[in-house]
Amino acid sequence: MEKIRWGLLGAGALLNRWLKGFEQMDDAEIAGIASRTIETAKKQAARFDIADAMTYDELLKRTDIDVMYIDVPHTAHKELAIRAMDAGFPVLVEKPAAVTAADWREMVECARKNNVFLMEAVWTRFFPTIKKVLSVIRSGEIGDIRCLQAAFAYRIADDYQGRITDPMAAGGSLLDVGVYNLHLAHMIFGRSPLHWVSLASIGNDEMKLNVDEQACYVGEYDNGAFAILTSAIRTEIPNTAQIFGTKGYIEIPMYWKAEEFKLITQEKSEVFSSPVPQMVEGITDEGYQFEIRHVQDCLWKDLKESPLLPHAVTEAVLSGCDEIRKQWGLKYPFE
Questions:
Q1: Residues 234, 99: one domain?
Q2: Which residues contact residue 293 at a Cβ distance below 8 angstroms, ignoring those fewer than 6 apart?
Q3: CA–CA distance, 52 with 103 (Å, rounded to integer)
Q4: Are residues 98 and 155 in the same domain?
Q5: What is the arithmetic mean of pLDDT over 60-76?
Q6: DSSP 3
Q7: Is 217 left (phi over 0), alpha (psi -120 to 50) or beta?
Q8: Is there a single domain that holds both residue 136 and residue 98?
Q9: Distance between CA atoms of 118 and 108, rounded to whole angstroms?
Q10: Predicted local distance difference test score (pLDDT) of residue 49
Q11: Which of 177, 166, 254, 173 minimizes the C-alpha distance to 210?
Q12: Where does the chain show beta strands of DSSP type E?
């Protein structure tokens, strides 16, 4: 079987989890890993048992790589993605794909200029459970959707120091986990809301952060439906999505990596379960294999954008983030 060869541009905090999904693939291999310094690349190559470690420049000169995966802080996504696409490589770039919608538009323009594939790595969209949820909604079983409630929130340690709280790294809850909320809303409603109304807590927690430590945002749709969403990095909140229709509702625990959901109508209460397959003993994947499989399918078909996560959807989500941050008056120092 011919294998798709991946290059890793960067070795961020997510890479260990992502590679556990990659290990489930029998038609893919890692051709090399790069970082800003060769020392870092070699350290990560040893950790993940990758044969070739090099600098970004060296990896981008390789001719035996089919696609690049970019996992670095999101402030560096645009630069690295454009460099990779200008070198002729298809790109899968971690979420959020860019800091702003304008940045993403530049990336899409570069992809089209170079005739290469580009997709944001929103793994949630490719879970069989989420596909089943959307199928149930389309069937009309819970009626017309009137409201989505979702939260993605957690509490960092009081002594935490890192990118999540750093304004120079575009830290805060919205771009760290809130983008999942906005992507879910776009999946459920199939469009952007008319507008967002939002509030954020900035500098009020005992850590006195200069980014959104928690936030709530409500999207109003043209049919009167609402998306009521919450994100936080200093508040523990049950991370559940609930989709309320005129005939019933759906509840999804940990919706961003959903393996089950509950369907409740007047006639029944039913649980659907779709565990992540584990093909390699001793390695547990949370579901990244679905995203990787989708990218490879797109490459086999010579597609330049994903039919499940097209460029316009990522732009719509980032435009929503732009609108929400504007309401807060939150600008990052580099903007």
A1: no
A2: 25, 126
A3: 31
A4: no
A5: 96
A6: -
A7: beta
A8: no
A9: 7
A10: 87
A11: 166
A12: 4-9, 28-35, 53-55, 67-70, 91-94, 118-121, 145-153, 195-202, 212-220, 226-232, 240-245, 248-253, 260-265, 269-273
Shared-domain flag, residues 71 and 161: no
Residue 267 domain-assigned (yes or no): yes
Q: Are residues 25 and 110 in the same domain?
A: yes
Tokens 């830290």, residue located: 171
Helix axes 179-189, 311-328, angle to 10 degrees: 130
Q: Kindly state the tokens that stand for 231.
A: 């994100």
Number of structural domains in the chain: 2
Give the per-residue pLDDT at 253: 97
Q: Which residues pair with 242 in a beta bridge?
A: 149, 251
* Same structural domain, 66 and 206: no
Q: Does 179 map to a domain?
A: yes
- Spacing of C-alpha 133 from chain mean position: 18
- Are both 85 and 152 inside the same structural domain? no
Torsion sign over Cα 15, 305, 258, 194: positive
The residue type of 82 is: I
- In sequence order, the β-bridge partners of residue 35 are 55
Domain-embedded: residue 40: yes
- Residues of 267-306 as b/e, b for ≥16 C-beta within 10 angstroms? eeeeebebebeeeeeeeebbbbbbbbbbbbebeeeeeebb
Read off the CATH number of the domain in which 154 is found.
3.30.360.10
At residue 259, what are phi and psi to the nearest 5 degrees? Answer: -115, -5
| Closest residue by Cα to residue 142 from 256, 274, 308, 269 | 269
**Angle between the N-to-C axes of helices 101-114 and 311-328, in degrees from 0 to 180, rounded to the nearest 10:** 160
pTM of the model: 0.96
262-284: average pLDDT: 95
Report CA torsion sign: 311, 317, 318, 323.
positive
Domain that holds residue 47: 4-121+291-307
Residue 165 lies in a domain: yes
Are 274 and 257 in contact by the 8 Å Cβ rule? The answer is no
Q: How many residues in total does the chain contain?
A: 335
pLDDT score recorded for residue 48: 83
Neighbouring CB atoms inside 10 A of 73's CB total: 19
With beta carbons less than 8 A apart as the criterion, state whether 288 and 20 touch: yes
Q: For position 115, which CATH number holds? A: 3.40.50.720
